[in-house]
Amino acid sequence: MLSKAKLWLSLALSTLLFWSAGLHAAWDLNMPRGVTQMSRDTYDLHMTIFWWCVAIGVVVFGAMLWSIINHRKSKGVKPATFHESTKVEIVWTLIPFLILIAMAIPATRVLTAAYDASESELDVQIIGYQWRWEYRYMRENMDEEEVSFFSVLATSREEINNGVEKGENYLLEVDRPLVIPTNTKVRFLMTSADVLHAWWVPDFAIKKDTIPGFINETWVIVEEPGIYRGQCAELCGMEHGFMPIEVHALEPADFQAWYEEQQAGVRQIRELAAAEMTMADAMAQGEQIYNRNCVACHQAGGVGMPPVFPALAGSAKATGDAAVTMDTLVNGVPGTAMAAYGRQLNPIELAAIITYVRNGFGNSAGDVIQPADVNAYIQEGQ
Amino acid sequence: MSAAHDHHHGPAKGLSRWLYTTNHKDIGSLYLWFSFAMFLLGGTFALVIRAELFQPGLQFVEPNFFNQMTTMHGLVMVFGAVMPAFVGLANWMIPLMIGAPDMALPRMNNWSFWILPFAFALMVSTMFMEGGGPNFGWTFYAPLSTTYAPPSTTFFIFAVHIMGASSIMGSINVIATILNMRAPGMTLMKMPLFVWTWLITAYLLIAVMPVLAGVVTMMLFDIHFGTSFFNAAGGGDPVLFQHLFWFFGHPEVYIMILPAFGVVSAIIPTFARKRLFGYDSMVYATASIAFLSFIVWAHHMFTVGMPLAGQLFFMYATMLIAVPTGVKVFNWVATMFRGAMTFETPMLFAIAFVVLFTMGGFTGVMLAITPVDFQYHDTYFVVAHFHYVLVPGAVFSIMAATYYWLPKWTGYMYDETLGKLHFWLSFIGVNLLFFPQHFLGLAGMPRRIPDYALQFANFNWISSVGGFLFGFSQLILLFVVIKCVKGGKKATDQVWEGAQGLEWTVPSPAPYHTFETPPDPKLIHAQ
Ligand SMILES: [Cu+2]
């Protein structure tokens, strides 16, 4: 219990810190220095090259300005006639070349370090989906419960549509953040389930594309506990602007407590899935899931955006044979934007959303799909 | 100006003049007008984007439509505004500069222009099709542009094919003209730099346009014929798409800037009244840039997870480009140094080009540094970078060229006061528009998003104001050009006191047919 209190305290403190920093953020001119060795090295490289550019700019633009002021016809000057000099050309070829070498050396050093993902202490798989992230913690022992979850934008549609005032972390907040331990080498293994995405947290100086069929790796050692935010950086379709990243870095002990709690949660869901669900429960839960996961494509009221995103209201696949609806949700429709939700949602959630689709939006299949049905269906498929 | 004004037949009358014309001046004008129309259209798309981004929250457009706007803006500006403008300038000026009577392949010239309006009509019409137009960015990365694309993508692919065919025909024409039709005495190393830069650009186009055609054809096959070039589930490779695209795309950005170098290298000596400094090194620098442009493409892909050796190679190669580019800038400054400058509108645009293009060059070097690029990549910092090289870069050079040669084209001087007004409003607008985007990118704003977190609000607001100022200022250009076509102060043959070169030896306006007999070799003064 103590560790839980500490967790909340550290979360609260870091939120406060972040918030006070946020007050000044509006006129930010520069890159954050970040909270990892890598991000500080990156920042230093950025500043070095920046000052080189400023120095060159001062010389070049200075010479130009001086000419513009002094060598104008209105001052009665006569133009000179010189028009070439091999010596000068060689000089201004060589000097930039040497400056570039001076830049390339530290850049090579930092890049080489960034590529060394060896000896990680924790591996997390990051999977991009249209338009959410999945985080899977790699187990050391396959008998343990696997901790994995989806992380979805938590900002409400009303805020986005200017219906209510925007919260402080507008568009940068998720329902379930990625949680990692501080001062631990965490390796990320990244891929995608559909199109390209890019996982980017500026404070870590990490940006990596998630690509279907590829596994990219990168790593981080976060030094400060806190909340770090980022966004998907690679255009991934309609809701690309709405798939943020939120990372909570906790002290290792707090992280361990959190992790065990998650494992307990997995066991609990397994037990709950055996229980019976009522229509009212399923519809209430289903509506929430719909608004979080489906509304971007199938729209409020299930009207869709034909021809690409079909309407669910009155859809034959939604109201006909329950197995068809179940198949659409669990396996998706390959080759289209309709993703497989079999892994993204747990059996209880799946049962609820299937029931909701079959009975919401004026549909009236009348049946309540149970978590056990979903489990049986998934088992059958394997 | 010997046989220059031999009017044995003038242009046909009415619409058929423009439809059937094989005259390089007519076709040049067609290209330039088309380009300006596309500039306004692409600009309108940009203003939709800036209006939406004026404040956080979704105000005017849906995210899907927003993505169509960013995509169409990029495609229209690159393929419809900038490239045709340079082809237009090439058509008008290359024969006049090398003392040739026309382009080498006049009928193909007509064809390569007239397929363009169809290509763009087709592309723009996709926005009215079911499911909307292309919404996957002008870089159309697969599989977003294949498996996940709207049905209209097939039409987009066809439109790209037509544009590519037009560009290839245009470049063959440029090469054939320059290599075969130079007046006696016009040796390669006496050609104006605009001709040189276009010769090199034309080779770049011929080299990379087929790659673009290939990549869109592979998309077509993935979409309709069951192949899996870019579909990982079928054993394909989405990263292959990017390699192919950028093998085209990186030379493409030099295709849009090399002729600009040529224009500026013509204008600065004229208004500095001093010969271009380091002509030979300018030619070699252009050629080196063109060569390097083929081996740097993967610097657009530093985050796809290439092996370390690949990252290092592309970082070093990219940094190298700064060297010949620097040589060019230094040569321009040395040309201005100890000249006797005046600051008519073309010169103002040319000077702004040198300064602002160089700023784009600086951010380019920063972006080359791979580990730092991880932070810059796909943010507004990149947007700021390439808009600095393309708008106050390529587009300003086109405007400079327009003011510079307009008197030669129309026979009248343009309104200098309005020209300067246009310049200053554009200059202020463009910097308000793009400079704050550097800050946005560094502070963490990704590109291609219709809505953003609250800390990005201030600079977006400023950027949008700049965008509208810049956009509406371009109507002044339209007005100046129309006014100048209608009349004004008569232009002399030389037009500008310091102007040198064959194009200034023919009357203003340049007669319908020029150099039917080659110019006197004595006129071809050393560059
Ligand atoms: Cu994404």
Structural key phrases:
heterodimer; A: 382 residues; alpha+beta; Immunoglobulin-like; Cytochrome Bc1 Complex, Chain D, domain 2; B: 527 residues; mainly alpha; Cytochrome C Oxidase, Chain A; 15 helices; disordered N terminus; binds copper (II) ion
Considering the protein shown, what is the CATH homologous superfamily of the largest domain in chain A? Answer: Cupredoxins -  blue copper proteins
Taken as a percent bin, the fraction of beta residues of chain A is 15-25%
What CATH calls the topology of chain B is Cytochrome C Oxidase, Chain A
Strand content of chain B: under 5%
Provide the structure class of chain A.
alpha+beta
Bound molecules: copper (II) ion
User: What is the count of helical runs of chain A?
Assistant: 10
CATH topology of the largest domain in chain A: Immunoglobulin-like
Please count the helical segments of chain B: 15
Give the proportion of residues in helices of chain B.
55-70%
Order of helices and strands of chain A: HHHEEEHEEEEEEEHHHHHH
User: How many domains, in number, for the residues of chain A?
Assistant: 3
Structure overview:
With 382 residues, chain A is an alpha+beta fold. Chain A has three domains: 37-70 and 84-114; 122-271, Immunoglobulin-like (Sandwich), CATH 2.60.40.420; 275-381, Orthogonal Bundle (Cytochrome Bc1 Complex, Chain D, domain 2). Chain A has helices at residues 2-24, 37-70, 86-114, 157-160, 252-272, 279-298, 316-319, 322-331, 347-359, 371-381; strands at residues 122-129, 132-137, 148-151, 178-181, 186-192, 197-201, 206-210, 216-220, 226-232, 244-250. In chain A, the strands form two sheets. Chain A has a five-stranded mixed β-sheet with strand order 3-2-1-5-8, with no helix packed on it. In chain A, strands 4-10-9-6-7 form a five-stranded mixed β-sheet. Chain A is elongated, with a radius of gyration of 27 Å. Chain B has a single domain (35-523), classed as Cytochrome C Oxidase, Chain A. Chain B is built from 15 helices and no strands. Chain B has helices at 15-20, 24-52, 63-98, 106-125, 153-180, 193-224, 238-255, 258-272, 279-292, 308-336, 345-368, 370-376, 380-410, 416-443, 457-486. Chain B is globular and about 65 Å long. The model of chain B is unreliable at 1-7 (pLDDT under 50). The chains are: A alpha+beta (382), B mainly alpha (527). Chains A and B meet through helix 2, helix 3, strand 7 and strand 9 of A and helix 3, helix 9, helix 10, helix 11 and helix 12 of B.
